[in-house]
Amino acid sequence: MVQELNRALHDEMSADRSVVVLGEDVGILGGVFRVTDGLTREFGDNRCFDTPVSEAGIIGMAVGMAIYGLRPVVEMQFDAFAYPAFEQIVSHVAKLRHRSRGRIDIPMVIRIPIGGGVGAVEQHSDSSESYYSHTPGLRVVAPSCAEDAYGLLRSSIQCGDPVVFLEPKRLYYTRLGGHNKDDEIPLGAAAIKRSGRDVTLVSYGPSVSTCLAAANVAAEDGLDVGVVDLRSLVPIDDKVLLSEARLSGKVVVVTESHGYASVASEISARISERCFKYLKAPVQRVTGFDVPFPPPALEKRFLPDIDRILDRVDFLAYGQAAKTAGDSVDL
Q1: Cβ-proximal residues to 167 (8 Å cutoff; 6+ apart), any chain
Q2: How far is 41 from 240, CA to CA, in rounded Å?
Q3: 211-228 per-position pLDDT tens digit
Q4: What is the dihedral of CA 102, 65, 94, 170, to 10 degrees?
Q5: Rounded Cα–Cα distance for residues 58 and 305 (Å)
Q6: How many whole angstroms separate alpha carbon 118 and alpha carbon 125?
Q7: Which parts of 79-145 fold into alpha helices (H)?
Q8: Looking at the whole model, is its pTM more than 0.85?
C-alpha cells in the first residue's frame, strides 16, 4: 500500500504542477511510513517539503495554498496528532466554500494514518473517522487494500472538495492481492468483495480484511457470507449498501472505531430505515469498545477479530431458526 500511495502522489505531481505535498518529515526522510519517499528528490523542495511541528499551522498553510490555486496534499503523522488541527479543518477547510457562497474552493487532501494493529501506544492508534464524517463539507475516504489505494488517492487529489484520506497503518506493508487498478476509482463507489445470501458484513478500511477472513471461515460451515467494502464514508454508496442488505436480510457492521455515535451507527440506521421490510433480524454491530484506545498489551482485546464477527454471524444465521423451533435464544 505504501508503494501504491507513493505512486499515486508521484503521478499526480507529474500530471499537475499545482499539486504540492507538505507535512512533518515528508521531505528528505520520506515520511514516518515512507509514503512520500523520493518526492523531494524528484520534484524539488518547493513541491514536497517539511513543515514545523504544528498541525494547526500545517492545515492553515494548506488552506491558503488552496485558496490561491494550489492542490495541497497534507500528511498528518498519526491519527491523534491531527486533533490540534481539528478547529482549522472544521471551521475553515469544511466551511469556506459555503461561507464564500461558492466563490472559494478548497481542493486539498488531508492524509491521516489511522487505526491499530501495529502495537503502537495509545496516541498513535486512534480511529477518528466519525469526527470527520460528522463534519458537513468534507469527503472521507478509507481504502482497505493496496489495489484501491492508488485509484482512490488520485481521485481524491483531483476532487474539487476537501478530502480526508484515512490510511490504515496496519495495511501499509500488505502486498497487492490481485490486479493493480491504475484507473481512478470514483469517490463514493463501494466495492462488493463477495456477495452472500445468508449474512452481509459491511465494513471499510482496516476491518475489511478481517471480515473477508471471517467470511471464509463461515463458508467452511456452509454459510454464504458477503462482504461490502464502503471505501468512501462520505458520501456512502447507498445503492450497493442497500442492495446487498436486501439480498441477505441479515447485516453485521464491523469497524475498529468506537460504537457509540459512530459511522457504524449511521450505517446501521440507514439500513434499518431503508430496508426494514427486507430485514429478517436487527442489524448487528461489531466495533471497538467505548473506552480510550488501550496500550499495546491489550490491543488484541479491543480490536474486532474473527471470533467476535462470527459470533454475530451465528447469532443472525442460527438464532432466528432456534427461536422458531421453540428454543430460548435471546434475539
Answers
A1: 1, 5, 35, 111, 112, 113, 114, 143, 149
A2: 42
A3: 999 999 999 999 999 999
A4: 140
A5: 36
A6: 8
A7: 86-88, 96-99, 129-133
A8: yes
pLDDT at res. 180: 54
Instruction: Using 70 as the pLDDT threshold, list the residues of the chain that sit under it.
Output: 176-182, 320-331
> Do residues 154 and 331 touch, judged by C-beta distance below 8 A?
no
Helices (H), 159-262: 208-220, 238-248
Q: What is the rounded average pLDDT for all residues in the chain?
A: 92
The per-residue pLDDT for 91 is: 96
Round to whole Å and give the CA distance between 108 and 106. 6
Q: What is the pLDDT of residue 183?
A: 73
Return the beta strands (E) in 38-145 as ranges: 48-50, 71-75, 109-114, 139-141
How many residues are there in the chain?
A: 331
- For residue 235, whether the previous peptide bond is cis, meaning omega lies within 30 degrees of 0, is yes
The catalytic position among 10, 92, 98, 124 is 124
Does the annotation mark 134 as catalytic? no
